[in-house]
Design brief:
heterodimer; A: two-stranded antiparallel ribbon; B: mainly alpha
């Protein structure tokens, strides 16, 4: 039970798929202009990755090794189509704003990474716990960045005006840059920086030693 | 004294001395308000340099004053204190200090801060530079070249580009001042510009051609905006120009055996 709990909680911060492995950032950058799209994307991806991990893990002894990627992609793609249809049926507005990115969950490195590296060689329960943990880790980063971008870019959260903007007589001047793609890179980079400062074991080894100069010598 | 007098801070001070003519004429034209503006940016950049010295043992540099001067002269007007604080901090921290301090940065921190402010607050008007600032850029270039901190090749490349644009019949009168000031303050930064001989020629040439392009075809751009955008694109291309120059040199060396 503790092992299962560890599998679930490890990917939240310590082995977070986005900030440690830099996986799945294309969608993380694209859908985080507001919190509601980020939330929808997080839920969709988490559902897909958990179900895909469960199914792949169930039939793991029957998948021929040579076509395993094809089988995994077919399973993931089928789930993505279901999710996409559900979104279009019940959340049409958000599904329009997410446009192609829900369908692109199929090619998200995070989903395929978990089914290929973990679910393929583990029983269903740990596989689904691992997938859920990774999905939640992805969701955590997405919601954090989505919330920051919407709050600073529009002064709103989930569409509700939290900070009164100067247009409506308030004091807050929105920063439209936050709604453009580069700001997602800045925020994600800053987040990775912050996490690796707190947990130095995550930092990459330096590629070469910095040159010794007089200014830095004691 | 291992390397004599010429360490990083000497170069920063020489650059600062080269910028004095422009800084002085800008202060005379702008008066007390300009002085206050400059002081604000000096304090913000200084605080960040000191913070990084305390946190990372990174030696602070007089280059911070260069950054502050460039931002004070070229930043959009009518921005709130918070916006200026954010833009300056972004440029100084993300473009310079995070890379290990002045000399290890890839892009000029002032260029990044200005681009950040320009993209963040597109409605804020860009400053109208007084015309004497453009003339003050000439002694600035002369001092820089004499003391060896400004590349003559880069300036010659820019001159070539401007001459070509004028021969082609393009009207550059509106952007002269901004183009020269941005050339001295942003493009000629010895750290962020190209480092090879040919690369520097191309660097200057590219800047001049981009300024001419923006001046003619970018109708809505203010002169300073066009010059800063050209400086940003040029400094992004600088490593590529160096790469090109080195590849060319390798090919020639191979052919000559």
């Amino acid at each position: 039970m503790t092992a299962l709990f560890a599998t679930l909680t490890e990917p939240l911060v310590r082995k977070n798929p986005i900030t440690l492995q830099i996986l799945g950032i294309c969608s993380a950058l694209a859908v985080t202009t507001s919190l509601d799209t980020a939330l929808t994307m997080s839920v969709s991806l988490t559902v897909v990755v958990v179900l895909a991990a469960g199914i792949v893990s169930l039939i793991r002894k029957h998948i021929p090794n040579s076509i395993r990627l094809i089988v995994q992609i077919v399973i993931v793609a089928s789930l993505v189509i279901v999710i996409d249809q559900v979104l279009q049926a019940f959340f049409f507005d958000i599904s329009q704003r997410l446009s192609v990115f829900v369908s692109l969950i199929t090619t998200n490195c995070l989903v395929l990474g978990r089914t290929e590296s973990f679910a393929r060689s583990n029983p269903p329960l740990p596989a689904m716990a691992d997938a859920l943990g990774n999905g939640l880790g992805y969701s955590l980063v997405l919601c954090l960045i989505g919330a920051i971008r919407e709050l600073i870019g529009k002064g709103a959260l989930l569409g509700y005006q939290v900070l009164p903007t100067t247009d409506t007589g308030g004091w807050f001047t929105p920063l439209p840059l936050m709604l453009l793609a580069p700001s997602a890179f800045f925020l994600l980079g800053g987040l990775v920086w912050a996490i690796r400062s707190i947990r130095p074991e995550q930092a990459d080894a330096p590629e070469f030693p910095a040159p010794e100069v007089a200014e830095t010598r004691q | 004294m291992i390397r004599g007098l010429w360490d990083r801070e000497t170069i920063a001070l020489m650059l600062l001395a080269a910028m004095l003519p422009m800084g002085a004429s800008w202060l005379i034209a702008g008066g007390l308000e300009a002085a206050g503006r400059l002081l604000f940016f000096l304090v913000v950049a200084g605080i960040w340099h000191v913070l990084w010295m305390l946190a990372r043992a990174q030696p602070p540099s007089f280059a911070g004053a260069l950054t502050a001067l460039a931002i004070a002269m070229l930043a959009p007007e009518d921005l709130g204190l918070f916006a200026l604080l954010l833009g300056t901090s972004f440029g100084v921290v993300m473009a310079e200090l995070a890379f290990g301090g002045w000399g290890r940065n890839v892009l000029n921190p002032a260029t990044i801060a200005l681009a950040f402010l320009g993209f963040s607050y597109p409605a804020a008007p860009w400053p109208e530079l007084p015309v004497q600032l453009g003339w003050a850029a000439w002694p600035a270039a002369a001092i820089g070249v004499v003391f060896g901190v400004t590349s003559l090749r880069l300036l010659a490349g820019a001159a070539l580009g401007f001459a070509a644009a004028m021969l082609a019949g393009l009207d550059l009168t509106a952007v002269w001042t901004a183009a020269l000031v941005a050339l001295m303050l942003l493009v000629c930064d010895p750290v962020a510009s190209a480092a090879t001989g040919l690369g520097r020629w191309l660097n200057g040439l590219l800047y001049a051609l981009l300024v001419a392009l923006f001046a003619v075809f970018w109708d809505t751009a203010a002169p300073v905006q066009a010059a800063v955008s050209a400086a940003l694109l040029t400094s992004l291309a600088a490593p590529l120009l160096d790469e090109f120059a080195i590849a060319l040199w390798l090919v020639r060396r191979k052919r000559l055996g």
